[in-house]
């Protein structure tokens, strides 16, 4: 039984590593804020589960675990087979997935508070995005709900480093628990601030101090997307020129989402390139197969355009420029105008074969 548990653990570890590797190849995931990691201790064995000295635990059948592993490998293989039909720089998306590719988003922070008398309230704090640039206001929204909301008074907002030191302080509208935030640090000295900051909203609830903290990243300007040129068909791709102005030379990623004229999401597109510290042009390339999968020849709209400066060396963090809210008109073309050569990943069949056969290699 011990050998089977070890083998199962190894198989699961291999599965997770394979899945991570395959998704890294087939999709481009957004940069996310780090999630807290919960560290737990393994549970103590109950007396009934500990073998008597000289005895052995009764072996359990490994067949159910093997079937679960086999099913998991098959599920991952099916997902990879479907996703790897498209190049990683342009693939179909739907309404459920489009929010994952609106980079630089933010999830609200909710802090519940209560009094001894049973009054309860929740402070909700949400920034407009995770990354902000020096010289622009840090914006968001704070609101209070619950049966005790009227007893909450938010009075101050501060920017702090990870040690909790206050770098900037502003007063809030007295007595209001629901308001728009716009925090504008002075430009002098911010170059010395750390990138990782915390925005703290503080006040009181029936005389007791309360606060809510939202993490953010605050860094030097990255650049801007200044325009979108006329599209053209080139081989199997619809090519869309994007005009960019960056602050420093380096490696950048430009991303966006293609929509129908009525606003239905079609394709996520992304391009990485080296840009010099001046105005330049990057070309987004959308493969015909991704467009055909959605059955739309255009015309289109290109939106959610974002610019990211990629790490120059190990330890650097990705830096985000502003995400554009404007939709740009893009001309399409009949599918017969494109090259009919399909996208092919040279490693696709080998990876699929590995996933299909992986479960058969594990014996109970």
Automatic annotation (TrEMBL):
Please list the residue ranges annotated as the DUF4785 domain: 233-308
Q: Which segments show compositional bias classed as Low complexity? A: 51-63
Annotated source species: Halovibrio salipaludis
* Short name of any one Pfam family annotated for the protein: DUF4785_3rd
Q: Report the InterPro entries cross-referenced here.
A: DUF4785_C (IPR048295)
Which residue ranges have biased composition labelled Basic and acidic residues?
Answer: 314-331
Instruction: Tell me the superkingdom of the source.
Output: Bacteria
List the residue ranges of the region (Disordered).
36-63, 311-332
Query: Under what name is this protein listed?
Result: DUF4785 domain-containing protein
């Amino acid at each position: 039984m011990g050998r089977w548990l070890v083998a199962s653990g190894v198989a699961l570890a291999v599965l997770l590593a394979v899945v991570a590797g395959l998704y890294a190849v087939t999709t481009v995931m957004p940069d996310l804020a780090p999630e807290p990691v919960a560290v737990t201790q393994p549970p103590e064995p109950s007396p009934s589960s500990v073998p008597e000295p000289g005895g052995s635990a009764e072996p359990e059948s490994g067949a159910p675990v093997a079937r679960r592993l086999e099913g998991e490998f098959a599920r991952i293989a099916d997902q990879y087979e479907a996703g790897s039909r498209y190049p990683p720089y342009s693939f179909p998306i739907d309404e459920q997935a489009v929010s994952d590719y609106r980079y630089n988003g933010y999830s609200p922070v909710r802090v519940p508070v209560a009094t001894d008398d049973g009054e309860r309230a929740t402070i909700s704090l949400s920034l407009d995005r995770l990354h902000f640039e020096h010289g622009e206001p840090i914006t968001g929204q704070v609101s209070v709900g619950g049966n005790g909301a009227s007893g909450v008074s938010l009075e101050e907002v501060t920017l702090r480093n990870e040690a909790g030191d206050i770098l900037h302080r502003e007063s809030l509208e007295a007595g209001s628990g629901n308001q728009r935030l716009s925090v504008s640090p002075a430009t002098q000295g911010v170059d010395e601030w750390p990138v990782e900051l915390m925005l703290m909203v503080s006040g009181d609830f029936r005389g007791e101090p309360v606060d809510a903290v939202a993490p953010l990243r605050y860094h030097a300007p990255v650049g801007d997307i200044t325009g979108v040129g006329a599209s053209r068909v080139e081989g199997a791709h619809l090519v869309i020129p994007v005009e960019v102005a960056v602050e420093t030379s380096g490696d950048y990623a430009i991303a966006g989402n293609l929509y129908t004229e009525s606003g239905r999401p079609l394709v996520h597109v992304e391009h990485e390139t080296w840009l010099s510290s001046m105005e330049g042009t990057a070309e987004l390339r959308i493969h015909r197969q991704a467009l055909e999968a959605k059955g739309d020849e255009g015309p289109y709209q290109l939106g959610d355009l974002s610019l990211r400066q990629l790490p120059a060396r190990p330890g650097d963090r990705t830096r985000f420029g502003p995400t554009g809210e404007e939709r740009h008109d893009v001309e399409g073309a009949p599918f017969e105008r494109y090259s009919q050569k399909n996208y092919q990943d040279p490693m696709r069949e080998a990876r699929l074969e590995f996933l299909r056969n992986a479960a058969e290699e594990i014996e109970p």
